[in-house]
């Protein structure tokens, strides 16, 4: 980012409000292509933020999000009267923003047809049963079998940033940023009935093997990228990919995660 006025690339969800703001901001600040910008500005909700990361993270540009969707944990909130209205503080907010460096998960899935599919996940990788039949899964950690058979609706592996999303809804733990851990969380586990998952070191290689995939088919989803009819899924934290999100100092990502844990609502 430059010390003066950063070059901004504005990206918006298809929602009418986001598209309107996109035009206003581009008219006021000028619009640059993502590869030519200093900062990417994403207008939408968390879903659109994840799309932006998947499309543009390889550019290595920091991303500042403005919440225009229904869920915006990864976004900055608009401020009454001075949020992102042209000429009302967007550049100042970007200059004052605090960075949060996120490291995605890498998923490699093997399918019944013999295909190998790779994908990244900034929130989580989830395995889910495809039919009414419960999934039967074996769980290996770093090459050692830790659970011979998990009978469940599914299971997921979440990053710290994603631990407040699907993982939290499945009663998994919220993980502090920078703790170098990931969450392994079952979804409606039937057996072992009392197993609640595990918190693992971030460099742990997690491998799921699907038992009887023809009778009990399972899909794997990395954020929103779904692979159906998997027989084996390997998940590990990426060693060479990171993305930087920018947050307003008074409501940075670490503060949001703390607030979520003490929210009694």
UniProtKB/TrEMBL annotation:
<dbReference type="InterPro" id="IPR002504">
    <property type="entry name" value="NADK"/>
</dbReference>
<dbReference type="InterPro" id="IPR016064">
    <property type="entry name" value="NAD/diacylglycerol_kinase_sf"/>
</dbReference>
<feature type="binding site">
    <location>
        <begin position="123"/>
        <end position="124"/>
    </location>
    <ligand>
        <name>NAD(+)</name>
    </ligand>
</feature>
<keyword id="KW-0067">ATP-binding</keyword>
<dbReference type="Pfam" id="PF01513">
    <property type="entry name" value="NAD_kinase"/>
</dbReference>
<dbReference type="InterPro" id="IPR017438">
    <property type="entry name" value="ATP-NAD_kinase_N"/>
</dbReference>
<comment type="function">
    <text>Involved in the regulation of the intracellular balance of NAD and NADP, and is a key enzyme in the biosynthesis of NADP. Catalyzes specifically the phosphorylation on 2'-hydroxyl of the adenosine moiety of NAD to yield NADP.</text>
</comment>
<feature type="binding site">
    <location>
        <begin position="164"/>
        <end position="169"/>
    </location>
    <ligand>
        <name>NAD(+)</name>
    </ligand>
</feature>
<keyword id="KW-0520">NAD</keyword>
<feature type="binding site">
    <location>
        <begin position="46"/>
        <end position="47"/>
    </location>
    <ligand>
        <name>NAD(+)</name>
    </ligand>
</feature>
<keyword id="KW-0547">Nucleotide-binding</keyword>
<dbReference type="InterPro" id="IPR017437">
    <property type="entry name" value="ATP-NAD_kinase_PpnK-typ_C"/>
</dbReference>
<feature type="binding site">
    <location>
        <position position="153"/>
    </location>
    <ligand>
        <name>NAD(+)</name>
    </ligand>
</feature>
<feature type="binding site">
    <location>
        <position position="161"/>
    </location>
    <ligand>
        <name>NAD(+)</name>
    </ligand>
</feature>
<keyword id="KW-0521">NADP</keyword>
<dbReference type="Pfam" id="PF20143">
    <property type="entry name" value="NAD_kinase_C"/>
</dbReference>
<keyword id="KW-0808">Transferase</keyword>
<comment type="similarity">
    <text>Belongs to the NAD kinase family.</text>
</comment>
<protein>
    <recommendedName>
        <fullName>NAD kinase</fullName>
        <ecNumber>2.7.1.23</ecNumber>
    </recommendedName>
</protein>
<keyword id="KW-0963">Cytoplasm</keyword>
<dbReference type="GO" id="GO:0003951">
    <property type="term" value="F:NAD+ kinase activity"/>
</dbReference>
<feature type="binding site">
    <location>
        <position position="188"/>
    </location>
    <ligand>
        <name>NAD(+)</name>
    </ligand>
</feature>
<feature type="active site" description="Proton acceptor">
    <location>
        <position position="46"/>
    </location>
</feature>
<keyword id="KW-0418">Kinase</keyword>
